[in-house]
Amino acid sequence: MLAACMLAAAVSCDDMNSVNSKWYEMGEHIYTGIVDSVKLSPGYERVKLDWQIGADPRITDEVICWNDAADSLVIEVPSGHEIPLRMSQIIPDLPEDTYVFVFRTKDRDGHRSGPVEEAVSIFGDKYISSLRPRSAVSVIRLANGTARIYWTTVASTAMVRSIVSWTDGTGQSRTAEVANSAMQTDIEDLPSGASIGISSVYLPEGSIDELRTSENKIKITGE
Q: CB–CB of 14/7 below 8 Å?
């Protein structure tokens, strides 16, 4: 029995030494504080990044990567900053797609924090082509020569206004903005046989940019 106990103790010690040796060889890992309150706000082929840095005085830089780390940005963190520190950055020239942004803090010795990931879908021409301008019930010429547009009710909460464009009798290009609440719009000085263009402006939830649809051309009737 004594021999068995001594053998078990020897094996246990060997196992413990093996574990300690493993951690010793790995060395001490030093991490900086991770970011907090990350918010990504999409726009037209761009994105606005907002995040918060906490109470870690060692942090000197914020490293942001996207496209599987093929693209990156290093932003200097002001020394002696207030706690917590809110930071923001707009990244332009992003083709329409869904992106995953990875945030890491870094100190002057190269120690980094764990990653914080956030995904966002960027708007572009493909998305805009899916948007439709506000519809008109009819557009007619009145007896006094004024063109009157009768509108349908706005159903989309993302549509913020509409725009009517036309060329007047002097050849000048003109536009008029139409509120969502308006149910009719009068257009004066519109030559006989002319057309008007109708487009609408959208502001999707969380977007930093307004998006304008292509124009829907309508020929005036009732002349």
A: no
Q: Are 31 and 18 in contact (CB under 8 A)?
A: no
What local confidence, expressed as pLDDT, does residue 26 receive?
41
Q: What would the mean pLDDT of 177-201 be, rounded to a whole number? A: 92
Per-residue confidence at 194, pLDDT binned at 50, 70, 90?
A: confident
Inform me whether the pLDDT recorded for 14 exceeds 90: no
Rounded to the nearest 10 degrees, how much is the dihedral formed by the CA atoms of 135, 140, 146, 151?
-20
Strands (E), 98-178: 98-107, 116-121, 136-141, 147-151, 159-167, 173-178
What is the identity of the amino acid at 200? S
Query: CA-based diameter of the chain, in Å?
Result: 117
* Residues found in the chain: 223
* AA letter at 87: M
Instruction: State how far the alpha carbon of 134 is from the alpha carbons of 153, 163, 176, 197, in Å.
Output: 8, 9, 14, 11
- Specify the 3-state DSSP secondary structure of 188: coil
Residues β-bridged to residue 86:
52
What are the two backbone dihedrals, phi and then psi, of residue 13, each rounded to the nearest 5 degrees?
-65, -40
| DSSP assignments along 53-70, one per residue | E-S-TTEEEEEEEETTTT
User: How much is the mean pLDDT over the chain?
Assistant: 87
